[in-house]
Amino acid sequence: MNLGQLNDAQRGFLKQFREAVKDCKLPDSDDTYLLRWLIARDFDLDKSEKMLRDAMEWRHQHKINTLLDDFISPEVLAKYFSAGYTGVDKLNSSLLITRFGAMDLKGMLLSAKKRDYLMTVVEVVERGIRAAQNNPTKFKRSPDFIFQMTVIFDMAGFSMRHITFKPAVETTLQLLQISESKYPELLRCVFVINAPKIFAILYSMMKPFMHEKTKNKVQIYSHDSSIWKAALLAEIDPDQLPVCYGGTMTDPDGNPNCVTKVGMGGEVPRSYYLDAKPDPTNKKTFTVSRGSKEQLEIQIKQAGAILKWDFYTEEGDLAFAVYRKKDDELIPIVSHDRIDCDVSPEEGEIQCDYTGVYVVEFDNSYSYFRSKKIWFSITVYNERIENTEPFQP
Hints:
By secondary structure, the chain is an alpha+beta fold. It has 13 helices and 14 strands. A 5-stranded mixed sheet has the order 1-2-3-4-5, sandwiched between helices. Strands 6, 8, 11, 13 and 14 form a 5-stranded antiparallel sheet that branches. It has a 4-stranded antiparallel sheet with strand order 7-12-9-10, with no helix packed on it.
């Protein structure tokens, strides 16, 4: 949809929406940016506003607005993560190709923190958006159209190893949720090619998290290249598509895979694996069931006390937050965020400016597959006295 296609009522909603969110620090103030949130929520103003505000909070929390300038992907991801832009489709949407089946997700997630993997993917998306902002003539049908992307997922090499390693599945689902909630209407079309039969298992896991509009944009093809090449060329000009996918594009040396634009993935050498061997000494343990959370209340008796934590899980990440309890309200002190505490222990501390009850939260409510065993220690250190007080649950 573009601005010119809006009826009078929709134009009125857009005007009201702009007024409602005028206090938000938006990465793009153009009407076409605001329009994507309205389309995603069928022009329901309240739902659109909530969706946008949640996304802006996420951008602030994870420093997305400066990601392209500040984030450096770990070497293992720079080498083995496979995704890149080759051009545009016939409607001037950016063309992104990822060789998903050729990537060693388990190896990457054992070699880097999941947050770095997620931010690597987000960086690719943000790079495409910035390119469109800098050159809208190339990447938009017209000034009043929403910028979108066409994505090709090459599943050649996809096997049970992509499904049996649960952190890889959970990370894939998390990326889907980020796409749906933080980048609405960014996808124009999705081609899944070279999909083996077992891809149906992964897709069945993903479908419950996909908006119906997204499902309608997905086209899935098996290994018959004559069929999927024809489908690609119906939407993409040959000079924008690598030879290996039916186009005419090659690397400068003639490589038909265009590896200078889209890496080939490959197995991650074990030399990259992180050697995380946490020390369980002086730590207590409990299990957070799948789909649930645990909250520990700590009584702070002296203003200025230091609350310290040190925890890790045996397998899988966990969301963590710290709140101050005021009457029946929980005031965030440490923002809720998912932590790769299975890769390396998470340590931190805060100064408690008020006496009263502080709540440390371990949240596994997003996990539909497994419980998480936590090893933790929580200590209160009073600045004006020399002793420490270990927390006793």
